[in-house]
C-alpha cells in the first residue's frame, strides 16, 4: 500500500466523499486564510510602550520586537499542536490557533485596563483549559451545546459568514471605520492595497463561479503575486503595503514558557475566578459557534442540527488552550477560517494535518505566513462569507419564534465582532419569545439556565463590575 493510500485509509477519506488531493488543497487553503495569526497575535499580545494605551506582555531585558518574535514561535507551536490533535484524535478538518478577540481581551482588558500581571493572565488561560478538558471528558460541553435552540444553531453559519465578510473587507481596505456611521467605504480608488484586493476578489469570485478547483488558493496567490509585481516594477512605492514584510525568527521561548506558574500568586482568588470565568465563557461559545457553523457548511450536522462526536473536536480545543497557556499565549480556539478549507472540499483530519504541518514548516522558514500579505489572504474570507449566507435557508422563517432568535444571532454577531455575543443574543431571546407566544412545549429548563448564564455574563462583562475588583 502506497503512502497516499495509507493516508486515505487512516483518515477514511473516501468514506467522507473526498480524496487525498482535495484534502491537501483544502489544508493549504485553510492555512493561507488563518496564517495571518502568526503575525497578528504577537503584535496584539506584545506591550508596545511607544503606542499610547497599548499593553500586554513585556519581558525585562527584551525589546518589544524580540518578545514579538518569541510570541510568533509560541503561536506557531500552539496552533500546530492543537491542530494535530484535531487531525488524529477528532479526524475533523478544523484549524486551531490563538483566537482573535480573546488575545485583545487578554492584552488590553485583563493586563492593560485591569492591571493584572501577564503571568497571571496566562495562569487563567491554563486553568480555563484544564476546566475545558474536565468538562469535555464528562460530556458537559456537548450537553450544553445540544441545548442550543434549533433556530440559533441554523443561524450561526450565516452570522459567521457576515462576520467573516467584515473581517475580510476591512483587511482588504475596502471597508474602514467611520466616526459618524461606524463603517464606510474606504478610499478604494486611491489606495493601492484596496485596488489590488478588489481585482483579486473579483478574479477569485470568477474562478469560484466557474468551479475551478483550488480557486481560492489561486486567487490568493495571484493577488499576492500582482502586488509583488507592481512593487518590483516600481509602479507603486515599496512602502505602499502591497508586499508583506518579514522578520528574523527568534526561537528562544524560555522567558515565556512556564511563566504562568508564577502568576498563581499575584492575585486573590475571587478576582482570579472572574478572569477565568470571562475567558471561559467567551471561548466556550466562540468554539461552539465555530464548530456548528463550519460543520453546517460541511454537511456534518445531523437532522437535529447537532454535530456527532463533537466531544472530540472540543477536546482538541481544550488541550490546545492548556498547552498554549503553558507556552505563553492566549486562548486557543477553532478558527472560522476553517470554512475556507471545507468549501474547497476538506472533510477529514487530513485537512487539519496539512494545516498543522504548514504551521510547523513556518518555523524553519522565514515565517511562511509573512509571505502572504493580509489583504490577499482575506479575499478568502469574503468569498466564504458570501457562500455561508446560504445557510439561512435552513431556518423556518415562517415561525416568528424562530425568526427572532435566528435574526438576533445573525445581526449581533458581526455588529459586535463576536461569535459568542451573537449566540448569546439568540439564546437569551429564544425562551422569552417562546413563552410570549405560548409555545411552552418547546422549552426546557436548560434553555432558561443558558439564558440566565448569558445575562450574568453580559452583566460581568459590560457593567464595569470586573474592573471594580482590581
TrEMBL record:
| InterPro entries for the chain | Azg-like, Azg-like_bact_archaea, NCS2
Judging by the UniProt lineage, the source's domain of life is: Archaea
Any transmembrane segments, and where? 70-90, 97-115, 121-140, 152-176, 188-209, 216-237, 350-369, 375-393, 405-428, 448-468
**What Gene Ontology molecular function terms does this protein carry?**
purine nucleobase transmembrane transporter activity
Topological category with respect to the lipid bilayer: Multi-pass membrane protein
Q: What keywords is this UniProt entry annotated with? A: Cell membrane, Membrane, Transmembrane, Transmembrane helix, Transport
Subcellular localization, as worded in the UniProt entry: Cell membrane
Give the CC-aspect GO terms.
plasma membrane
**Family assignment?**
Belongs to the nucleobase:cation symporter-2 (NCS2) (TC 2.A.40) family. Azg-like subfamily.
User: Any idea what this protein is called?
Assistant: Putative MFS transporter, AGZA family, xanthine/uracil permease
The scientific name of the source species is Halopelagius inordinatus
